[in-house]
Amino acid sequence: MSKRSAAGKKPQTKLGHLGRDPALYRGFVNPPAYRGSTVIFPTLASLMADDQEFSYGRICTPTVKELQESLAELEGGDACFLSSSGLSAITAVLLAFVEAGDHLLVTDSVYKPTRRYCNEVLKRLGVETTYYDPMIGAGISELLRPNTKLVFTEAPGSQTFEVQDIPAIADAAHKAGALVAMDNTWATPLFFKPFEHGVDISIHAATKYIVGHADAMLGAVIAKGGRSVEALSAIHDAGGMCPGPEDVYLGLRGMRTMGVRLERHQTSAIALAEWFAERPEVERVLHPAFPDCPGHEIWKRDFLGASGLFSVVLKPMSKEALAAMVDDMDLFGMGYSWGGYESLILPFDPRAYRSATTWDAKGPSLRIHAGLEDLDDLIADLEAGFDRAAAKS
């Protein structure tokens, strides 16, 4: 079955058939991982005309092309550009659309390394960044200036889980002549359609759910509209944004099962969130599917599902009790990534890096990624952790 058979099909079917054409590689189901730098031209005329589909490994390979075209199709964009990590995808977007003298609006709930890049690199380059309340909605119009070139959104925030009103923000930004970028890693192309809600540039840490197995680093930028595509194409070429062939291959492999994995992540995360909500140690649960999560009604209106990442705010406990809980988990590992098959638990405190809003939690907070393990085993692991914490209280 060729990749052409995916045209017009539903997303779950596309996941299995985009980005592969067995007729091109002697009937094998999966495309090969093209490893290479040099591409040979047959004649001087061909070299001077640069008339081949592929000219140099840094620019594109057949493997890269397959994944780029697949992700663009899944999300409804015009073009996709791959990079070596989610952060490199974010920085490429920022460099593509702002320059010295420009103003940038960034959600206060943004991924911390994005904030660091704005505060350290873009500031040095003469770009001013203003952070805004993620729940501002149409009120963002009051922050837009004549030199505001880009509004950077992330929905939901990957620690505190505010769900932004993307259509309202996009409408205000476009009226002011600014573009809108969105970090859509949490929802993936399956659970949120950014271009249907006014977004111009969608960004993914493909390391997370697209790869899905915690074994590769990969970023993706998907753009809609000629202005966005041209700017990103220029920065992608000039910046040498080339991911490794093995990582791209693993992105294609992970894409095949992303749909079924997300179903399991979603089911387990909601069940764990409900379990946490009943625990006496828990102050509140931050999950977009829960009514008391900021932006819950927006999530119901605009999103098609929820992935496996959410947070819980605990009631006050000592550092010793928290350490006793998380240090000896059997199944939940402590790590900074998420989106893989493994469950993760990560204490966090955003007070030091919020500037437009105030984080007022009295107790420690935990970010939870629900992996693919059995739900009963995950709950047993968490119960044992709370028991260890209680013994230290």
From TrEMBL:
One of its GO terms (molecular function) is cysteine-S-conjugate beta-lyase activity. The keyword Nucleotide-binding does not apply. The keyword Ribosomal protein does not apply. It is an enzyme of class 4 (lyase). Its cofactor is pyridoxal 5'-phosphate. It catalyses: L,L-cystathionine + H2O = L-homocysteine + pyruvate + NH4(+). Pfam families: Cys_Met_Meta_PP. InterPro entries: Cys/Met-Metab_PyrdxlP-dep_enz, Cys_b_lyase_bac, PyrdxlP-dep_Trfase, PyrdxlP-dep_Trfase_major, PyrdxlP-dep_Trfase_small. Its EC number is 4.4.1.13. It comes from the Bacteria. Keywords: Lyase, Pyridoxal phosphate. NCBIfam families: cysta_beta_ly_B (TIGR01324). Belongs to the trans-sulfuration enzymes family. This is Cystathionine beta-lyase. It comes from Methyloligella solikamskensis.
